[in-house]
Structures are given as C-alpha cells and as structure tokens.
Please model this.
Amino acid sequence: MKKLFVFLCVAGLIAASASPLFAGGIDNKTNWSAEYIRTLNRNAATDSPDIVMYNPAGVMKMDDGFYGSLSVQYILKDYTNNINGVDFDQDEPSAIPGLFFLYKQDRWAGFFGLSNVLGGGKVDYEKGNVTSTFIGLGILLNPASPLFGAGYGISNQKLEGEHIGLGYTFGGSFKINDIFSVSLGAMYLDTQKEGKGSITFANVNPLAPVLTANVDYEEDADGWGGVIGVNISPTDQWNIGIRYNTKINLDYDQTVNQDNFGVLPAVGITNGGESTRDLPAIFAIGVSYKLNDKIRLETNLTYYFNEDADWSGDEDLVDNGYDLGLALEYTFNPKLKGSIGYLHTDTGIDAEYMLPEAPQLNVNTIGGGVAYEAIPGMILNFSLGNAFYDKDSFVSSTTGATIEYEKNNFFMAFGIQYKFM
Model:
C-alpha cells in the first residue's frame, strides 16, 4: 500500500502546475502573435515584426525602418478529465502577450521579441480532477496515514495550477546577397509554476472530525538558449525560412508553502529542493510560394526534440513531436489581406504520461483572420480559430480506473503593428 501511495502521487501531484497546450510540443509553445493565429504558419513569413521569433533571418526581406508590434491572444480552455464515467471539468481562460521590435537598415537588422514559450496560463478544477482524486486515494490507502481504515472518504476536492514561461529573444540578421540571409540570436527564459489544492475527507461517523489536506508550492527557473536562422529566396515567388532553437537547461528551485499531510517529498518536492525539466530544442522550416500578386501559400514543419531534453528520466517515456501546417493568404487590395490556416500537431506522448491538468493531446487546429492598414504605417490584425483535440484514454495499471482526456480551445487575437520610420 505504501508503494501505491507513492505511485499515485507521482502520477498526479508533480503535474499540478499546468502547461496549457495550444500550439507546439509537449512543453514548447509557438502561438506567439496575432499574425500566427490568422495563418498558423509563420516559419517562412517576411511581412511583420513577429517573424523575429519565427523567421529571424527573413526580416531582411522587409523594408528599412523601425517597427513595433503588440499582440494579445485570448484562449477559452474547456478541459475534461473523466474517471470511470465521472467528469471533472475546468474552463479557466488564458491571455497571452506578444511584443516585437525590429530595426532594419540596408544589410543589417537588430531585433527583440517577447512571448510565452513555455506553459501558458492557469487551470482551475473546482471539483478536483485525476490528480487530486488519485492523491486523495493515496492518502486513504496509505497504512501510515491516520485516515487508513478509519471510515473516511473524499467529500470535496479542488485543484489549481499555473505555468508561465516568458521568452526574451534578441539578436541580429545579415543579408549576404539577394538569395541568402542569416541571423543569430539568444533567448532568455524565465518561468514559474504554481500548484495548490485541497482534499476534504469526511467520516461515516458524523461525530468524527472533518479533515482537509492542503498543498501549496512554487517552482522557478531560468535559462539561456541560442537561436540560429537562415532565409533563402531563390526567386521572387519562393521563400524558405529555417530556424533552430537550442535546448534551454532549466533547474527549478522549489518552495513549499503548505503541505500538512506531507505528500510532496514522495514526489521529490521539498522546500529548498530542485528539479530539472529542460525546454526541448526546436527545428523549424517553412516554404512560401506566391502564386500571383494576390495569393500566397505557405507550408510549415516544426519539430520538437523531446527525447534529447533532460526531464529527470521522463524523456524516455515520450517521442519527439511535430507541427505540420498549410496556410493561404489573399490580398484583396493594398490595405487589406485575409488568410486561413491549418495545423496538425502530434505531441509524441501517450495518455498515461500526460498532465491531467492540461493533457497534451494531438490536435487539428484551424485559424483565420484579416490584416488591415488603418493608416499609413499602422497595420491591425484580427484573428480567431479553434483547436479540435483528439480524445485519448488509458486504464490505470494500479487502480484499474479508466481515465479519458478531452479538450477544446477557442481562441481570438488582436495585434497592432506600426512602422515608426
């Protein structure tokens, strides 16, 4: 029973800091801008400052000047954990910022980008979920627990998790000739996790005291990575963007604010302790083709090297993941263009190893929107879409429970871009 207690905690509590997936790998997030939302494919784009994070070498195709761009995404997150036919839901939304600056002159450019590259917001399971249910069962079934065999059961439960990871990208680009340009940059990642929850135990004997297990902890980490880019324009119609983001080493410092039942040490979380979970490297390539003056097509592949990251052994339980997409952009007139995009994501992880709070399910995403030049130099982007996740399930080898995960994300975004000079 003691081993069962430890297993149940490992299966759940260590994942209580949620990492809501919208676009990207198991940990990596790539929905950084409003322009991305309306196309879902930006690896070969050459038209807006947000490409300092998608195709940094491609900025050399833009006109000379100083650009600034601000994006805000709003994501409605409908998540469900189902345990033997019983649903545990959450619908806490998330807002994701994006800020981009570019200065280009002749054959040189300098850039800065800021957006969420890891995590993505908060989840709030007001009636608990797989994690809290398994922890509660672990406490009840642990022979060392005062609740073991004492007539107690779970009466109420609640779990909240939040995970934010802001990536600060900066660097420079250089035009070799009309065909080739290159870029070199760095990314500083600052990330925080928070997890808290409570489980209330009531007794069949109404005179017995009601007991509550409370957990509240935080983890913080930061690290540096490199970003290398190449842009190839063999003709006026074709453009190829290539980017490689190196792995970022992340060692999380742990702070335990509350743990009155002492469950955290069983999963390696202690006050003043440390855990490791790197952000995997990324290889991204995109190909853009201008069919004519009005129609541009783009296809993207983004590959996530999950197996090469240090996740304290958990990397052995997953495969590498990828995004594969296609976009069509149509120019109605010099001031207005519209686009629609499709993206398929294969995360590379089986259901039994996913985060219950934000399961990393495979997904097909559709997005679209418009870009409108409101005044000379100012372009507004409006976009929206939906991520249609595949259901996935597994049978717990320890409890025999059938667990199914479901998700749906509806999202919208607004962006403003301005050329100052």
In short: The first strand starts at residue 65 and ends at 83. Confidence is low (pLDDT under 50) at residues 1-21. The chain has four helices and 18 strands.
